[in-house]
Amino acid sequence: MRLVLILTLILVASPAAAQQISFDLAGSESLAGRSMLLIAAITLLSIAPGLAIMVTCFPFIVTVLSLLRQAMVETAVQN
């Protein structure tokens, strides 16, 4: 049964590996269109980290780990 599953996966995946991706930098798009696409891509890349911090639990994890680090530090004896 396991051999049949492996062979099926190999046979199904082989046509996908044969496909080619066409990426034409000197395409029929105008310079203004490519410029706008570049500006949009840079904007998305600059906004993405802020969105990731706002919609995930990253700030909570950082706060908890910071408090944990401070709690585990040995306190120095006052002279």
From TrEMBL:
Name listed for the protein in its UniProt record: Flagellar biosynthetic protein FliP
Species, as recorded: Rhodobacter xanthinilyticus
Keywords: Cell membrane, Membrane, Signal, Transmembrane, Transmembrane helix
Topology class, membrane: Multi-pass membrane protein
Segments crossing the lipid bilayer: 37-62
Top-rank taxon, per record: Bacteria
GO CC terms, sorted: plasma membrane
Claim: Iron is one of the keywords in the record: no
InterPro entries associated with the record: T3SS_IM_P
Signal peptide: 1-18
Localization per record: Cell membrane
Protein family according to the UniProt entry: Belongs to the FliP/MopC/SpaP family.
